[in-house]
Amino acid sequence: MTSMGDGLTFNALPWLAATLTGNALLVSLVSFATRLQWQLFSLLFGVNIS
After folding, report:
1. Domain range holding 9?
2. Half-sphere exposure of 19 (CA within 13 A, CB side)
3. In this predicted structure, what is the pLDDT of residue 18?
4. What is the pLDDT of residue 44?
5. Which of the listed residues 21, 22, 29, 34 has the most CB atoms within 10 Å of its CB?
6. Pseudo-torsion of CA 9, 13, 19, 23, nearest 10°?
7. Which ranges of the chain would DSSP assign to H, the alpha helix?
8. Confidence (pLDDT) at 39
9. Is 35 left (phi over 0), alpha (psi -120 to 50) or beta?
10. What are phi and psi of 3, to 5 degrees?
11. How many Å is the Cα radius of gyration of the chain?
12. Which of 37, 27, 28 is nearest to 6 (CA)?
């Protein structure tokens, strides 16, 4: 269930940014920001678990 919510959020936020602004740079920044937390936390937790 959580994975489905994450997938919807990853798709909905850039779509919302595109609807509100129409600026491709802002849409890409929103996409980057939503995925950045996963990249940072998975790296940190992976190092701690190992």
Report:
1. 2-49
2. 6
3. 93
4. 80
5. 34
6. -150
7. 2-20, 24-49
8. 83
9. alpha
10. -65, -35
11. 13
12. 37
